[in-house]
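> forwarded from #structure-qc
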């Protein structure tokens, strides 16, 4: 089962204009949109936060869905940019 690695891109993706536009459309936060996008793709997502209000925010993603058009907009943000090692190439040491 695929798991998202740094699902929030260490919070960098939360500043993205498209992510914020979709968040406004669905009345959710950028983090909730990104977490939901992972879920819509069947990807296991474990966001990290030390902030209680954010932990609560991050679990509240089961009362809405993204449309196919919104998912496609988010899919199209891919730039093959990474903030960690490429799992396909990482040797484990
Ligand atoms: N085992 C693995 O597969 C694996 C893979 C990648 C990373 N990691 C480890 O997991 C840890 C976290 O990695 P990451 O930073 O890349 O994870 P991440 O989940 O992509 O991002 C976490 C960052 O987002 C912030 N954040 C979380 N929820 C938020 C929300 N609702 N609104 C705004 N900001 C929010 C957190 O801030 P606060 O905590 O300050 O709230 C933190 O700065 C690291 O220790 C890393 O080494 C493990």
């Amino acid at each position: 089962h695929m798991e998202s690695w740094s699902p929030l891109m260490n919070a960098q993706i939360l500043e993205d204009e498209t992510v914020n536009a979709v968040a406004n459309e669905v009345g959710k936060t950028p983090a909730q949109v990104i977490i939901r996008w992972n879920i819509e793709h069947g990807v296991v997502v474990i966001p990290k936060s030390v902030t209680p209000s954010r932990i609560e925010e991050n679990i509240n993603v089961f009362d809405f869905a993204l449309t196919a058009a919104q998912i496609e907009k988010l899919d199209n943000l891919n730039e093959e940019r990474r903030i960690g090692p490429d799992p396909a190439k990482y040797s484990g040491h």
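QC bot note: The mean pLDDT is 95. The longest helix spans residues 30-40.
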